[in-house]
Design goal:
CATH topology of the largest domain: pyruvate-formate lyase- activating enzyme
Largest sheet: 6 strands, parallel
Strand content: 15-25%
Shape: globular
Strand order of the largest sheet: 2-1-3-4-5-6
Structural class: alpha/beta
CATH superfamily of the largest domain: tm_1862 like domain
Number of domains: 3
Oligomer: single chain
Bound molecules: iron/sulfur cluster
Number of helices: 16
Helix content: 25-40%
Length: 459
């Protein structure tokens, strides 16, 4: 099969979360094995993949309208004598399944997030036997078993260590689109991380829908915690920074909290969604934690790592939310004080329990509450950034800036930092004195290039 594919081009459009970004990277690697190379130009692609996300409102409708545009591209290519195979992958594929083939005759293959390692075979069947294929099974362990060695060359990248969720929050589609919780074995993750570090990765973000529920098998077949996994990955040469996302308050164990104090490569940043500051709403959301538990976790984390930067997810206008419930959300934000946050108005996802709940909050009221909340979050983000002015921070330089001679990097707290520095420093961690801060980014001056030993002392 590989000979017939030499010189063929693959275009992937990725929607949504970091896990989809990771999946798309792996998709390029899988297809690279059979001779495909990447293109940014859809009209040059022999295979077009939409790697979809089901989290946002009207996600499926957006995919169908994109498929309308793709049909025009495919027809034009046909007139020029080229065939195009069209694939819908990811969570919309999982949720809609066969329906996509009926509503969009242009689509050849529908493939769920757990099956994309099979894409080369399906493309062969679609091209040679003119078959239309749907695969939305949940054989999650097989996917990782069949993926090739990592070849992605990125200074900062993602590594999925855990997929799926058993928690069934009443607003969320993840348990239906990604299946039950599955943790990859420690050695498999370590070998992927080593390959990435060898290819140049300096900062790795470990991904999972419930990453801190990680319980993959170690070499002895015992369940390892996320903290134990991080400890092992921290030994990898070349890898300088480790992060993880997304966590659930119920799975913030003592060993993970202590890891933030004990493992220098683990960055002082925690994204810990609380969703609502009202215990009544948390119960309706089936979050299985309450506000006292959340405040307690944050308190223990701040004791272990006083400078930790905190981030969260908040849903406003969940069914049944009163003014008082919303005020409790505002109060919790004031109590915790976030470095950044993601906040949304509730919108119903078909198939979830909350979609049929009584007490749906009018859109205008939810939007007004969101505005009030975001004004507070913006103030806190600005204050957090202002708080590092005058500090010298280790910055990992990741890319070129818009200005000549400017590089852009990240602080340990995930802040974007602009600095004038020689381009040869790309990929290095340098010490930068922060001289200015807006809500979205920092400006710094180079305080010196640091050797490896200094670097490790600083992170
Ligand atoms: S814990 Fe997260 S992924 Fe799981 S159901 Fe709740 S919101 Fe969705």
């Amino acid at each position: 099969m590989s000979d017939t594919k030499k010189g063929k081009k693959l275009f992937v459009k990725t929607y949504g979360c970091q896990m989809n970004e990771y999946d798309s990277d792996r998709l390029f690697e899988v297809m690279g094995e059979i001779g495909f190379s990447a293109t940014d130009d859809m009209s040059k692609a022999d295979v077009i993949v939409l790697n979809t996300c089901h989290i946002r409102e009207k996600a499926a409708e957006k995919v169908y309208s994109e498929l309308g545009r793709i049909k025009l591209v495919r027809n034009k290519r046909l007139q020029e004598g080229f065939d195009t195979t069209i694939v819908v992958a990811g969570c919309v594929a999982q949720a809609e399944g066969r329906e996509i083939l009926s509503r969009a005759p242009v689509v050849n293959i529908v493939i769920g997030p757990q099956s994309f390692h099979r894409l080369p075979d399906y493309i062969f069947s679609a091209e040679q036997h003119k078959q239309r294929i749907v695969d939305t099974d949940f054989p999650v362990e097989l996917k990782f078993d069949h993926l090739p060695e990592r070849t992605t060359k990125k200074l900062t990248t993602f590594l999925t260590v855990q997929e799926g969720c058993d928690k069934f929050c009443t607003f969320c589609v993840v348990p239906y689109t990604r299946g039950g919780e599955y943790s990859r074995p420690v050695d498999e993750i370590a070998s992927e991380a080593r390959a990435l570090a060898k290819a140049g990765t300096r900062e790795l973000t470990l991904l999972g829908q419930n990453v801190n529920a990680y319980h993959g098998a170690d070499a002895q077949g015992q369940a390892a915690s996320l903290a134990q996994l991080i400890e092992k990955l921290a030994d990898i040469e070349g890898l300088q920074r480790i992060r993880y996302t997304t966590s659930h308050p119920n799975d913030m164990t003592d060993d993970l909290i202590n890891a933030h104090a004990d493992i220098p490569k683990l960055m002082p940043y925690l994204h810990l969604p609380f969703q609502s500051g009202s215990n009544k709403i948390l119960k309706a959301m089936n979050r299985t934690h309450d506000i006292d538990k959340y405040i307690d976790v944050i308190g223990r984390m701040r004791t272990a790592r006083p400078d930790i930067a905190l981030s969260t997810d908040i849903i406003v206008g969940f069914p049944g939310e009163t003014d008082q419930d919303f005020e409790e959300t505002m109060q919790l934000v004031r109590t915790i004080n976030y470095a950044q946050a993601y906040s949304f108005t509730y919108s119903a996802r078909p198939g979830t329990t909350a979609a049929n709940m009584d007490g749906q909050v009018p859109k205008e009221l939810a939007s007004a509450r969101l505005q009030e909340l975001q004004a507070l979050l913006k103030e806190q983000q600005f204050a957090f950034n202002q708080g590092v002015i005058g500090q010298k921070l280790p910055i990992l330089l990741e890319k070129y800036g818009r200005m000549d001679g400017q590089l852009v990097g990240r602080s340990p707290y995930l802040q974007l930092v602009h600095v004038m520095a020689d381009k040869s420093l790309l990929g290095e961690i340098i010490e930068v004195e922060i001289v200015d801060a807006t809500r979205n980014s920092l400006t710094g001056q180079m305080a010196g290039q640091m050797g490896k030993v200094d670097r490790e002392a600083l992170v």
